[in-house]
What we know:
The chain is mostly helical. It folds into two domains: 100 residues, Four Helix Bundle (Hemerythrin (Met), subunit A); 177 residues, no CATH class. The protein contains 15 helices and two strands. Strands 1-2 form a two-stranded antiparallel sheet. It starts with a helix and ends in a 16-residue tail after the last helix.
Amino acid sequence: xxxxxxxxxxxxxxxxxxxxxxxxxxxxxxxxxxxxxxxxxxxxxxxxxxxxxxxxxxxxxxxxxxxxxxxxxxxxxxxxxxxxxxxxxxxxxxxxxxxxxxxxxxxxxxxxxxxxxxxxxxxxxxxxxxxxxxxxxxxxxxxxxxxxxxxxxxxxxxxxxxxxxxxxxxxxxxxxxxxxxxxxxxxxxxxxxxxxxxxxxxxxxxxxxxxxxxxxxxxxxxxxxxxxxxxxxxxxxxxxxxxxxxxxxxxxxxxxxxxxxxxxxxxxxxxxxxxxxxxxxxxxxxxxxxxxxxxxxxxxxxxx
Length: 304
């Protein structure tokens, strides 16, 4: 009931808003509180866009309010805009980083923007009747990108994007010792974006058998040289019958191989999410195995 009452708070006029922002910047907590209450409906509206079956808007409202407070504190009245216009960006940023949405992988901002633009482009092509657009068609419509970047992001989304969060806090021994997965992978002298790219794609591909890695990369048009398989340098995604010819199997089996490879990558991501510390002797074959099948004991000693 309290939450519903907050949503009915009166809106402010432009002059009232500017006056309250000035007072808030001078340390008046009551003015800040009134600004928050008057814009709580904006927070709820934005939170509802991120709501899922597992997370509702009320659970996200706390993070959204934090974004609103940051906007109030940073608001520059010389811009001549309303608080709601300025705060929208900060609320979106805060909600996207909510712990309640930790099942969604958090990418660097430039990659997250690229992903959203790519998904909108794919949806636009679908509305035009192109339900299976090629990487080249997507890249052409997006502009300022390459089909190879589109291919890598599509493969990334199909494997681990909805499973793993690289900046979710992992509790340390002490409160000050908390860290994230990105902090402990163990590489040095690499930018955050390089680290994300390596872990997202090459890390997972390296755990697959060569034929499964080949099927995945060529299905999505990702340029990767797989040992034992031809490397043409072509950026286009290959058809199943072309992959089957290269692998030496029947075309209908390519779909099974691709599905199996994607599932293995998702199991690795689930493992990293629950125990993200890489110590170097993980039994990856055991981790990727189907838990419904009888476990093979030799997997326990596989350090690949």
